[in-house]
Design goal:
Helix content is about 90%, strand content about 0%. The protein is mainly α and about 210 residues long. About 30% of the residues are buried.
Length: about 210
């Protein structure tokens, strides 16, 4: 019985401390979906199809970023546990440098062979999207860097502030996307996503 009481108390404590992770994790899904929602309302059928394909770029980049970030989570937690704060921040900075370096290589590949690869897959011409490919790679990079800071803040037990950051980005992303997509069509949609990710990165960088 004693064990059960301790166990239940522990579970409640864990839920209380981790509830903000659930909240802002849920909000990030909305943020990533805003361009699609806005695009479905304001773009032509042809551009909706193109945007759905091209928006996979930041999604794939985010997954690649997780492969870099996640293996270091336990190490970062142990460094903080043993009060090796300088080493903690060194690893965070190293991860950011790796991700930024990867983005340069991906941008070059996206610009040079990206249209050709997508044309093979979908049978459509993507030549006019070369610059927009780079825009979305950059947006994905800023999103990955924000995730690095987010994981760092979570390890530092600063989860509540992240909820406020993501809520702010949610509203900013919606209004920027709505305005720029209305004015510049698909180019505005992708540019608004980049601006939203830059703002998110600045917020996280300031707090971190």
């Amino acid at each position: 019985k004693k064990y059960e009481i301790i166990k239940n108390s522990f579970n409640k404590n864990v839920f209380k401390k981790s509830k903000y992770i659930f909240y802002f994790g849920f909000i990030t899904l909305f943020i990533s979906s805003i361009p699609r929602f806005i695009g479905n309302d304001l773009l032509s059928s042809k551009n909706i199809g193109y945007s759905g394909i091209v928006m996979m770029i930041p999604t794939v980049m985010n997954l690649m970023g997780q492969f870099v970030i996640q293996p270091k989570i336990v190490e970062l937690s142990n460094l903080l546990k043993h009060k090796k704060v300088d080493d903690f921040y060194k690893i965070i900075n190293k991860i950011c440098i790796i991700l930024f370096s990867m983005s340069i290589v991906i941008s070059i590949c996206a610009y040079t062979i990206g249209p050709f690869c997508l044309q093979l897959l979908y049978g459509l011409s993507f030549d006019k999207f070369r610059i927009l490919f780079c825009v979305l790679v950059l947006a994905g990079t800023f999103n990955c860097l924000s995730n690095v800071y987010s994981n760092g803040l979570t390890i530092l037990r600063k989860t509540k502030v992240q909820l406020y950051i993501y809520l702010s980005v949610l509203f900013v992303c919606y209004f920027i996307s709505l305005y720029l997509t209305t004015k510049f069509s698909i180019q505005g949609l992708f540019t608004s996503y980049l601006l939203s990710m830059i703002i998110q990165y600045v917020f996280f960088g300031f707090v971190f």
